[in-house]
Amino acid sequence: MAKANTNNKEWNLAPAPESADHVQVKEKYDLFIGGKFRAPSGKKYFPTINPANEEVIAHIAEANERDVDMAVKAARKAYREVWSKISAAERGKYLFRIARLIQERAREFAIIESMDGGKAIRESRDVDIPLAAAHFFYHAGWTDKLQYAFPHQKVEPLGVAGQIIPWNFPLLMAAWKIAPALAAGNTVVLKPAETTSLTALKLAELIQDAGLPNGVVNIVTGAGPTGRALVEHPDVDKIAFTGSTDVGKMIQRSLAGTRKKLTLELGGKAANIILEDATIDQAVEGIINGIFFNQGHVCCAGSRLFVQESIASEVDRRLKHRMNSLILGDPLDKNTDIGAINSKGQLATIESYIAKAKKEGLEMFQVDCAVPRKGFWCRPTLFSDVAQSSVIAREEIFGPVLAIQTFRTIDEVIDKANNTPYGLSAGVWTDKGSRIFNLTSRLRAGVVWANTYNKFDPTSPFGGYKESGFGREGGVHGLRAYVKLDA
Ligand code: NAP
Ligand code: MG
Fold first, then answer.
1. SS3 assignment, position 398
2. How many A from CA of 165 to the centre of ligand 1?
3. What's phi and psi for 9, nearest 5 deg?
4. 332 pLDDT higher than 60
5. Residue 299 is a catalytic residue
6. 3-state secondary structure of 46
7. Which residue among 56, 210, 298, 330 has the highest number of C-beta atoms inside a 10 angstrom radius?
8. Model's pTM, two decimal places?
């Protein structure tokens, strides 16, 4: 693929593509049910494409209600007959084995993640895959220590967990869901997103290699209706969903009045706040990482930037300078900062927001780099002097589009930052610890980063307030969502 390069002409780097020769992708992937790959009962397959060149990578099975029912039955049988019978330490061994196998095959997973989803290999290699392994390692350690996580209480698994994940961190989201569920003694039916099923299916192969008892993890691929069939299946004990707020609300309505437990990790519209005493270069790196990391396909993306008025012009200058040096292009090139947008549909959504912002008369800055002819691409974009009422300050775009606002006082910025239906994450940049404590305790967001952004760790809980959902993933809090407690 032609490499698009930065407009910073003096610093053009030679292409450094990661070789994909050793990566094995089959032409066709079946459903993973009861420890075996099975053809879908409706015999339907859909293509998964590489969003950087629009080439078909493989065909993926579409699971209908019958297949979902088979998967839930397989999970129930495995729960009753095996997983709830073996010792906790034994469960832990399987999780350790999965973690180690992910590490061993990290390179292959990273390449497939970048091919199927469009994200820069640097991210899939350095963030997605190592963190996925870390989640299995972390939870492997908990399996035989649940009585310490929940002292003086009787701890029991819930049973069968139905799990539905989005396309922005495919393997990592699968790990976030599967690892705590298994650690707590549940079995799982997982539905990956339609555009990024490949690494979940590679994980299924790895799970076979790890010798996990049949049916403990089942993977049903497909689109929205497959997810709905899983949500509505009567024999599922818990639904864990990560995705859009709209679908989350539908799921909540459909589960109302049932005995099923539910956790929702939904959208966000995070505020990244720079105070005048911040180290500006460091903050600029954090802003770039916050919104352009993974093409802005991040629920906790720092999509609203609040800059204190006295440093606004300096931040604006340095931010644009840094944006101009970002390299957009082939996701498999190790120099690439910005990969492809995940799908044609998502690109159309992002472009419609850019058009709306322009129509509002907002001042736009877009990096002037070349964009490959094929595939789905969006240049890093920012809008200055955005009003609170603007659509790009209110709605989640899920793309590399930053809305900048200024403020004078801390009270003013807290009011503005909290003035959103979401409450997933936020960032604060300042030299003063006291200001960090003041702001972080008043911002209504599940995660607040101080002088850093988009940092994740399996030991720390992640999740939102308000329309960003409920329940936590990671840490002891995340385990809580997969157990029944009796005092
Ligand atoms: P989405 O449309 O809600 O899809 C998420 C998952 O739900 C996909 O697997 C999707 O299948 C499935 N689905 C669609 N309709 C369904 C239905 N009626 N019943 C059950 N499942 C259904 O979200 P998305 O656009 O793919 O992902 C982006 C969203 O996820 C953003 O809003 C983002 O903020 C959020 N997100 C949140 C977090 C977090 O931790 N809070 C993390 C990552 C992403 P198909 O894709 O196959 O249609
Ligand atoms: Mg794809």
1. coil
2. 6
3. -60, -35
4. yes
5. yes
6. strand
7. 330
8. 0.96
